[in-house]
Amino acid sequence: MTVAEVLVSVRKFHGRRHWHHPMVRLGEDEHGVWLGEQVGTVYSKGEVGPVYTTEEPRVMLFPRDAWWTVLFQAAPARLDVYCDVTTPSEWPNPTEVTMVDLDLDVCRTRATGAVFVDDEDEFARHRVRYGYPPEVVAQATAAAEWLTGALQDGTEPFRSRYRTWLDTVGW
């Protein structure tokens, strides 16, 4: 298998670098582009450098033209699904994907399947501090609402489709 490394580069609305880490392109399907990473992947934040190393295999989905990305995590992670509300992902070149994190997260717990929205307080602060335009606020809140419903009712790729991609990360 030929592996194509991709840098995932997330910024905050004010333009500063947020999370960044390497992943490997797994493929594409009707849901978007799938990237994967094995145990031991190093995540860096801002200009600080390495912050933590993953303890479980992970895959991320970058849907086309959607205001979110999603991280699916194998055990032992407490959350099996972690959705970031973001601007639509952009691919400046085949080895980098970028987006702006809009603070809101929609998560599902592994143990109970409970779905919750996280960081609403951060979103409220940042929309004022950084002057999120009304269209950005509308898109972000609509994405969080849609994701909450999709995780609760098992809309794909949140029901089982992601497991097929997660199973490939043991290469």
Question: Summary?
Answer:
This protein is an alpha+beta fold and 171 residues long. It is built from three helices and eleven strands.
Write up this protein:
With 171 residues, the protein is α+β, with helices and mostly antiparallel strands. It is 21% helix and 45% strand. The chain contains 3 helices and 11 strands; from the N terminus they run E-E-E-E-E-E-E-E-E-E-E-H-H-H. A 7-stranded mixed barrel has the order 1-2-3-6-7-8-10. The chain starts with a strand and ends in a 5-residue tail after the last helix.
Strand segment tally: 11
Gyration radius (Cα, Å) is: 15 Å
- Distance from first to last alpha carbon: 9 Å
How would you spell out the order of helices and strands?
EEEEEEEEEEEHHH
Shape by Cα distribution: globular
Oligomer classification = single chain
The major beta sheet can be summarized as: 7 strands, mixed, barrel
Low-confidence stretches: none
Strand neighbour order, sheet with most strands = 1-2-3-6-7-8-10
Rounded mean pLDDT score: 93
Helix content: 10-25%
